[in-house]
Design goal:
Length: about 300
């Protein structure tokens, strides 16, 4: 795959499912670190895409950018959504009836002065965490975080998480989010290099740490879930974009462009016209744990 193209590598790439060791670690810790996923050229390309977005979109008062709908906002990022080194982990966990429901790109320059600790620990999913009654909550979605800057040391805006917390519904915290409060015991700042990827269960308790380094923090987050869960990203105008037809069928599925307006399709009633099902079938990679509703 060329780092400068929007079309992804799906058609000609050999996918390798998640290993049993990866699955065991993911189930135990709630996350995996994938080393060296992106080449130096890819890192430079995608970092430049984020720098352009940072220069052209409204920024927060501290100069940071948190831009939703990653591929809609920056089509050049489309090659990340089914990257051969990461996407197999998604369908190994969730199966073939999936799409990207929530994505964002983040650029965080240096914070010049220390800030007080405050409670921004959370599980992904928003109201899912208030309205689902099970304990532990269901997984429902997973996330890929592509790191485009060096956060191999703490204090660079590292993703901070509590290993193994994905099966815990609540953490003891402050009465309000703006009350200074320390991180929960056992929390770690994940230290990774540019080009590494963190794959994590949406339920793991996590937060962004502050960037006190001289390195600008750059990262792309892609959240995947079942197609019967509504997409939060802006997708309404995607099929009208000039680059849409350059995407592979699997990429179009992931961005919500397959079975539009057909609830039964999103429920998985038509696997033979669901591109990821077809791709996995043709490669002999269908997991019997995720069969069609009607064999």
């Amino acid at each position: 795959m060329s780092a400068t193209t929007t079309a992804g590598p799906t058609a000609g790439t050999d996918w390798v499912p998640m290993t049993s060791e990866q699955r065991e670690q993911f189930d135990t810790d709630g996350y995996l670190v994938l080393k060296g996923v992106l080449s130096p050229d890819e890192v430079r390309h995608y970092a430049s895409v984020l720098d352009t977005a940072h220069a052209t979109h409204p920024r927060a008062a501290d100069g940071s950018l948190h831009l939703l709908s990653a591929v809609t906002s920056c089509p050049e990022l489309a090659g990340l959504i089914d990257h051969p080194a990461t996407f197999p982990l998604v369908w190994s966990i969730l199966g073939w009836n999936v799409h990207i429901y929530h994505s964002h790109l983040d650029v965080h320059p240096t914070i010049p002065a220390p800030k007080p600790d405050f409670w921004h620990w959370h599980q992904d999913g928003g109201r899912q965490n208030r309205e689902l009654e099970t304990d532990p909550r269901p997984r429902l979605s997973v996330k890929l975080a592509y790191w485009l800057s060096d956060v191999s040391e703490e204090g660079r805006g590292n993703l901070t998480l509590l290993p193994g917390s994905h099966k815990t519904n609540w953490l003891p915290g402050p009465p309000k989010r703006d009350v200074p409060w320390p991180a929960p015991p056992g929390a770690v700042q994940v230290k990774v290099d540019a080009g590494d990827v963190v794959f994590f269960d949406r339920r793991i308790w996590h937060a962004r740490s502050f960037n006190y380094s001289e390195i600008t923090r750059r990262c792309v987050f892609l959240g995947y879930t079942y197609r019967w869960i509504a997409i939060r990203d802006e997708i309404a105008r995607l099929p009208q974009q000039p680059w849409w037809n350059d995407l592979s069928p699997v990429q179009q599925q992931l961005l919500g462009g397959v079975g539009v307006g057909d609830g039964d399709h999103h429920w998985g009633h038509y696997p033979e016209s669901t591109p990821l099902y077809v791709a996995l079938r043709d490669k002999g990679l269908l997991d019997p744990s995720y069969p069609p509703l009607i064999p």
